[in-house]
Amino acid sequence: MQLIILEDESWRNFKPLSYTRPCFDLMNREGRLIDQLVGTIRHDGLTGYVRDYLAEIEEERHQGIEFNKPPPRDDEALVINALVRELSIVDKLLKKSEGREFVLLNNGRIMAARVRGARLEEAHDPQTLISLLNELASKVDGYVIDGSHLYSYPWELLDAGEPPRPPRESGPPIDPRVAVMGEPSELYIAENVVIEPFTVLDVRGGPIIIEEGCRVSSGSIIMGPSRIGRGSEVLGGRVGPGVFTGPVCKLSGEIEHTIILGYSNKRHFGYIGHSLIGEWVNIAAGTVGSNLKNTYGEVRVNTDSGRVSSGRQFLGQLIGDHARTSVGTSIMCGRKLGCFTMSMGLVSQDLPPFVGVSPEGGLYVLELWSEIATAERMMSRRSVQMTDSYRRLIQILYEVTAPERGGITKK
Hints:
This protein is α/β, with parallel strands linked by helices and 411 residues long. The protein folds into two domains: 2-154, Spore Coat Polysaccharide Biosynthesis Protein SpsA, Chain A, CATH 3.90.550.10; 179-405, UDP N-Acetylglucosamine Acyltransferase, domain 1 (3 Solenoid). Strand 36 (355-357) and strand 37 form a beta hairpin. It is globular.
């Protein structure tokens, strides 16, 4: 059976994080969404349906996965929405349907479908695939499920999933001068991890997972549940609870209830909480992100379809790839810092991609060539070389996001 992971139009609600990746490459507390899908659903082949401008870079990121290509005519295809929250529902329906074709809808969105490959031979992009499945809903077994079983907004990822306990490994011995608060069995420390003396690992609130190649400096406090991604460094301060990172991050200051996708720096004093942060982000010393309104009311967020209530009293920032802040930046709660932005001073409004904030508080458009050069320099500091595909992605994004910068001039 061919597994097809479908990104629907709700990707727009996940900006700015979704500008540079399909939604299945986002993370919740359990890890990347695509890893959860692939690890749960049995399949013989894997296809992703994504925006056209992402297809090239995704083929580079996920070798072995085809993109925007119909399944073989004689094969059976299982389509699953990339933003599905409860895979157990799909699994139960697969068993209940006993091999019959079906389409499952949730709040008007395609949640899952099992159909013959021949029915999808005209599907070469997500929109066409969605249209074909909506038409099929009246011709095959159609199901509608109430409730919120698909992610609709990025902040829903902050509370979703449980950090998986890795297979128990012996790991390196822990220095007796490291304080472990709670049950030591809730520590999962991989090989080649260095934890210096006089650190605190507090697992009373949940497990702490420290992946291979990490380093935790003296004076650091890590509070569970948290997962420190491969090759990352904790350089003092308090990290957690609820901090889940991808690989090669630098962490310090005060960070809590935050997901960082990878290769990002928050290594100085300052506060970030209840936030989602992309890759290649640099949060400068003294940057403080508010996560609570002075009125203690629900935080509201701007989306393409209008301003919506997050339903949350605590919500920080949504920060896109390659965003940077200057020393001493303050950011109001619920704000979006677009990909390739440069912030300073007080940030009281959302920043479109490729926009900087001047010392006087005005906005100006950043030069494409300068942003590519800056990205190359940052990536080289982590021994990552920018590929031609990645460079083309940045160039396309500059064009795609131009309407959002309407009325903002170059410096």
